[in-house]
Amino acid sequence: MPDSTNTTARESGPTGRIGATAARHGRLVMWVWAVLITASAVLLPLQLGRLSIPSTAMGDSPALRAAELITRGFPRLGSEQMMLAFDSPTWQGTDPAYQKAVSSTARAIVGRAGVGTVLPVPTVTGQNPRHVYVSIGVTGDESTRQRRLPHLQDVAYRTAREASGGRVSVAVVGLTPVLAELIHADVKDLRFVEIVTVPTAVLLLAFGLGSLGAAVVPLVVAVSTVLVSTGALMAMSLVTQVDTTMLTLASSVGLGLGLDYALLILLRYRQARSRGRTPLEATARATATAGTTVSWCALVVVTTSAALLIIPARNVRMLALGAMIATGITLCAALTLLPALLPRLDPWLDRGRLRRRSGSPERLEAEGTTGPPAFPGAGAKAATDGWWTRWTLHLMRRPWPYLISALTVLVLAATPVLGIRLGLHYDRTALAHTTTGQGLLRMEHDRLASVTVLALPHPPGAPPVDTTALSAALHADPRVALASALDNGKDLTVLAVGERNAPDSAASTSLLNDIHRLVPRLLPAGQRVLIAGPTAALADLKSAAVTGLWQVIGIVLAASFGLLLVVFRSVLIPLKAIAMNVLAVGAAFGVLTLVSEMSGGTPAGGGTAAGGAAGAGVAGAGVAGGGVNVLIPLLAFALVFGLSMDYEVFLVHRIAEHYHRSGDNARAVAHGLQHTARTITLAAAVMVVTFAGLLTTHRQDFQQMGLTVAAAIAIDVTVIRIVLVPSLMRLLGHRNWWLPHGLTRLLPAPRRTGAHAFPDAEAASPLVSPRTPSQTNRASRTGALTEEQG
Questions:
Q1: Containing H/E element for 425?
Q2: 2-6, 208-212, 261-265, 514-518 — which is least confidently predicted?
Q3: β-sheet bridge partners, residue 353
Q4: What is the pTM assigned to this prediction?
Q5: What is the DSSP string of 357-399?
């Protein structure tokens, strides 16, 4: 590598040195990534069959403690209760031939591994006479039950069909069967999302960058990131549970960030090339500048995702881990694979040109010159023409009207969030055409929807707990189909309450609350009660999610403030960034609330006991119209906040570097907006397309996540980054960069390397404190020259 490239790397900090090294040893780097991609491609199809159902475990919740107590006291009831939902188009349930088919199926299942008790379910009022139900207790942990399920289903389907001559069919309905069906649907959806989003993103990049050749580079990096990320998750599945929800989120994050980060570095590379630098020098310079920005952006995304680890739900923690892994691998690809590719693909970047490069983002950034004042307080204007230049100058002259208008739009967009209805509703749409889903639908129509079990421990050898009064009160409740008590003869009495309503319905939640009120009055004084079942599990998860949301918000806000305080050495910039991001998230949730209300409806009748419990997991928890999944605010807030900070760092970094060079705040804001607006818009458009692809899935929780993130990014880039932030920074003036003297001593000293404190060939450090008046005057006289000679 030429000496100038070595000098650039030495003066540009860690990212510049990493990029220069990767460019110098490009063949080795590409071989390493090729091996990783190949291993991932081989591992992916082999491990897809090992994807687990989403775990519904949630720390030490009351419902989980009750379930464990019941499992210990009644081992043959199993750790999960499934239903055999029989149906016949011609026979009544009382017909001898029908009963023979049911009995044959039950006998065939009893002898199978992992099957405990098999009990007929009494007929309830309003039940379809052609439907028969049998409850089976299944033992083993989640992975064991999932592994045994296909054989259990095959035995049930085959026996019922053969014993009835094809006149009786059966569906195995429960938590494990429901989530197993979602695995197959999710894999198909993920493939379709990639088929739709990748070509669309390439077209956007080709149009924005001006050529197909340039668009291919971010695509290669993004696809490599997705493959290696999924390969890492598949490797994890060898030692722990990995589900399709985790895989989908990691793929979306990897694809979106991979395109985003590669785009930012590519633009800086082309800018350096347009200034006459060699490919190796341009690579080192691009990773030194944009690479540092990308590193900070990735750190913010990882930090905000890590905040989700405080939620006790295992599934939420695994989703956070998946996002963190995808972000880390994306950063590695941007700092190693991309620098290795750029010098070698340099001759191809202009192939398939769609328009002249004179309007490309990197060309605009390279053409700054001095000129007469363009607005009050500005010392110069760029010689470039075009929409972004005219908009920038217009905005700088009229900051107040645009500030007020943007705030009004955001507040109005966020207003619907005041009426948001959070819940965990079973996503019936995703299973409508499956055997399990059809069995679930039959049970909903028959009003045999769920079972809540009260665990009543008592001293060993003591008589069973007297549940007469409580059972009578429940029998008289129209929401209850049956109530039956059972004692194990040792230390535990259970009261099974058959519910007519789905566990995700308002009626079921109301019944649970009423049971909590009845228990102290109708059971012996001092009797300990634990409540298990899907309704209780949903209530526990909803409570934990709402409580955890405020904790996550606090952690994300504090971490974001700390990171931006270190990056920009300013108090007002982090506070402004946090306020703007909160507005963007609020507006996005306002849009989500409107859409969910427009979809209308409530959960239809009910769901099975085990089926409803599936709603306690992220994968099974969709929205049956008219409500928002309570986990979406958790996941979307952390993810959106991290992604929005990417654009904040990118825009304000450019403003800061110009301000600390010239000392002119108005000019710095204009410069930053003018030279980043097109890039931010293009990067955001790619991200919107990536997450909007989730709207094509069948899962309503995926759709809600995709809508929220896409809306938040669109609002962020159109209203906040392009209007609100520059208007506010223009009005705040030099106060943008205020830092108390005490914090100056406490914060890490800005790194000074070579001629610049920040690794940017085009600017001095954005991290240094504002200059004295004499330094500002000197900077103002030399700023334009430095910019041209960068």
A1: strand 425-426
A2: 2-6
A3: 211
A4: 0.81
A5: GGGSHHHHHT-----S--STT-----S--SHHHHHHHHHHH-H
